[in-house]
Amino acid sequence: MQGMGGTLSSSNPLILAAFESALRHQALIVLVLLLIAATAWVWPYTAPKPKPEAGPTLESTPPATELGEHPARKFLRISFGLLWIFDGLLQLQQGMPVGLPTDVVQPAAASSPGWVQHLVNNGVSIWLRHPIPAAASAVWIQVGVGILLLVASRGRLSQLAGVVSVGWGLVVWVFGEAFGGIFGSGLSWLFGAPGAVLLYVIAGVLIALPERAWVGQRIGRALLGVLGVFLLAMAVLQAWPGRGFWQGQSNPHATVGALTSMVQTMSQTPQPHLLSSLVSSFASFDAQHGWSVNLFIVLALAAIGIALLTGREQVTFVALVCSSVLCIAVWVFVQDLGFLGGVGTDPNSMIPTVLLIGAGYVALTRQAVPVVQRVDVAKPAGLRSALRSPAALGVTAAVASFGIVLVGAVPMAFASVNTHTDTIVTEAINGQPEPTDTPATPFELTDQNGESVSLATLKGRTVALTFLDPVCTSDCPLIAQEFRQVDESLGAAATKNTAFVAVVANPTYLGVQFVQAFDSQENMNMPNWYFLTGSLSQLTAVWDAYGIQVQTIGSGGMAAHSDTTYVIDGAGHLRTILGADPGDTTTDSASFAALLNKEMRAVAAG
Amino acid sequence: MRSPKGTYTATALAIGIVTITVGCSSHSTASSSATSADASVGVPLTTSVATPNGTWATFPMGHLDDPTNTFWELFTLPGGSERWAQHTPPDVADNGGLVIAPTSAGAVVGFRPSELLSFSPLASTDDGGTTYTPGLLSGGLANVPDALSVSPSGEAAALTTTQVLTSAAALSAWQPATTVAAIDASPAGLACGVRQVTAVLTTGTDIVVGLSCSKPGVVGLLQRTGSAFVSAGVQLPSTDAKAVIEVLRIAAYQHGVAALIGVRNGSATSYIAAWNSTPGSPTWTLSAPEAVGGALISTGVTSGSGFVVLSKADSGTLAAAAIAGQGSNWTQLAAPPAGTATISVSGDRTDALVVDSATFIDYRLTSGQWAKAQTVQVAIPYGSTG
Prior knowledge:
The complex is a heterodimer of chains A (606) and B (386).
Chain A: H1 13-46, E1 64-67, H2 71-90, H3 96-109, H4 114-129, H5 131-151, H6 155-176, H7 196-208, H8 218-239, H9 258-267, H10 273-310, H11 313-333, H12 350-365, E2 370-373, H13 383-386, H14 390-417, H15 424-430, E3 434-439, E4 444-446, E5 452-454, E6 462-468, H16 475-490, E7 498-504, H17 512-522, E8 529-532, H18 536-545, E9 550-551, E10 560-561, E11 564-568, E12 573-579, H19 586-604
Parallel strand pairs in A: 6-7, 7-8
Antiparallel strand pairs in A: 1-2, 3-12, 4-5, 6-11, 9-10, 11-12
Chain B: H1 5-38, E1 47-51, E2 54-62, E3 70-78, E4 85-86, E5 98-102, E6 107-111, E7 120-125, E8 133-137, E9 148-150, E10 156-159, E11 163-167, E12 175-179, H2 180-185, H3 187-192, E13 194-202, E14 207-213, E15 221-225, E16 228-231, E17 244-253, E18 256-265, E19 268-276, E20 285-286, E21 290-291, E22 295-302, E23 306-312, E24 318-323, E25 330-332, E26 340-346, E27 349-356, E28 359-366, E29 369-377
Parallel strand pairs in B: 1-22
Antiparallel strand pairs in B: 1-2, 2-3, 3-4, 5-6, 6-7, 7-8, 9-10, 10-11, 11-12, 13-14, 14-15, 15-16, 17-18, 18-19, 19-20, 19-21, 22-23, 23-24, 24-25, 26-27, 27-28, 28-29
């Protein structure tokens, strides 16, 4: 009902069912991919290994040695691969299709400049236009990237895994994390700056480097140097006065410090009681000792940053231990593990930070170990034999993983270029269109130009009939714009054969001047638009005939009325009843417009 | 082990950049604060208006931290009555605020635009708010308590964000009287350096507008002469030559026009009432300035051409002062109860109207003490907007 706040819930059963269905379908495709990969693995071994004949058909050179994968690279590849898989599994949460963009992404961008919000809102709009394919795609892309990192250990495919990780990471960092909030106010290392996924991107860049780049200590020094500079900069930022980090909350009426406020908010997240107790306890502690807590954090960040910059093995090791302890403490007590609450997308920044520092330390202190490799120089006897090699198995696994990425990426790409909103959004809010076939009750009212319009005068045209409050502040202007969208999408040729009709649904503001003011506000100047009004008794008769409830709420509330749209065919029969509540977002409106368009076309086609 | 000189350089550079960046943003914040310290008093929409027919008051209720669940309520105290009654006009969402213009028989209430509504529906009553007749302003009322004015003979003036509109009668057929841009560009506007048009008043024959001026020491009170708006001639003492001055309210009274002026001198705020009992003449009688600390949260027009101001300090402490009319002095009222939204003064009755979410509580000032007199639970329509 207009004025009663129809909303699209994250737990809407239709959305959940569609999400599960999409995941099941895509899981089947993934299963097929895995079966193909498994066949490729098993097939070479289904035939007996060819016996050497008299002549040397398969020659082997003496075993050769080459450097194995650098331990630091392997550490990064496996750890970030697991993180991507974990993040992908988090995308399975049922709140993702609707909750992720509105509860996570938009709030993340709220304190950023207008251009960041604009950019992020573009991504949010795409997601909300196609919530099911978008949410399902995110699962497979991230799981696929993770598996790809795990299985592609060497060579170009492994580098490709790094590149894919960088690419998807940047998409998430920009559109999901609003650049990690680096352009917003309240930036703090404690809260996840510079964005957890930027750390995944850094790891991806390192994995994408040629393996020869890992020889020596260059990467270790560079990585630790960058992290050292970053932590020092974060220490400066943390220490900067006037940003609210030096205060806790001196008394219940005083302004709450930034850290205390953040931790208090996190403690409200749905989570196990033990964890919320821990976080609440820390909030209380910080409220009382805000200055000391911040001093400790500033000093710790600065000390770790300087230690990492020294490049000395022992000092770096101490920094690694200290940073691990600090990061885990911040992860638990400030970031509250990051992924709880139903729409958490990753474990936030502390775990990837520790992993990067750890990788830097390993890169500084360890070297790749030479491995013995058997190199067959003779031509393999057919494909089957070629697939017997361990390298071929790796390639097969990597290709299958890349296929899983594509299972998500392809629908995501189609969704991003498809400007037509999925009708499931409005169906989730209003229910599915209800077909009917009864004569529409006749009416005769006055339009915005003061002329009499009756249902009979519209005979022969497909009519969309709804009920709008001309002084409404929320839903009615959106519904009017939906009608405009449908009119535009049906095209000029349909103008003579269609009519978009609204009847006033306000018991007080029902004069023609209000209808005209509404039309002017909404630019409703289509030739087939009729905003009808009349006396209260005339209007009440129409409301009753079409089952529209209109009621005064009072105390500053708008007049409440049913949000219903009827599609009436050229013969004057009601053919479809649609709920028209536009919900919370303009995307929901676009979804209704798409559904109304479909229904009007169907009715017009008979 | 090799000393990483390059890394040290990068460190210094990065820290420098961060420091300069944060420093710059901090500096701009400090600049903003400095500007804020010099800024005008600001005109809150919350108000009370005492008329011979009764007293009207409007203030926000509900969840004030959520605009879609903040609803402005209208309470009336009919002349001679002891009890306030809620008479918010129905059938328009009023999350954007209400503007009250007293009329000879009652009041016209304007709904400020909010969310997707860009024009202002009106509601007029002649029976103290029991019934309302709908009306329409083609634009959206400005966010000030004197954005709407009705003369005793029925002429109306309205202030939108871009225009001053007038209506000869019946709150219809609004015509533009001038634009805010034209006021800005007029000699009087240029002398003021208009920040904002803050009030409009029609007496039937004259239109007066109030301004917030950026030029120090200038009182932005203009009256229409022919088609032009010229200074009404209010001059403050030379001690206020460097102050930022803002006309907060304009009210008509039996003998002329009264104005409430906010004077911001550094961090000190004071209020001056001004009266002109010979419309059109530049002769104004000024009250002594009354210093009231804290941020202004409400103003009121008292019966008898006076004003009342209510302010709130950072500590949350409220302070209020009232002046009865021309020739009287400001009176500091006892510290109003916590949660007071506005103060009304009608004759010898002074009320503090306290709001706590959906609860309205009236405190009356009796022998210098506030005493609870009435409580009203309001059925706030949470969730009905948005």
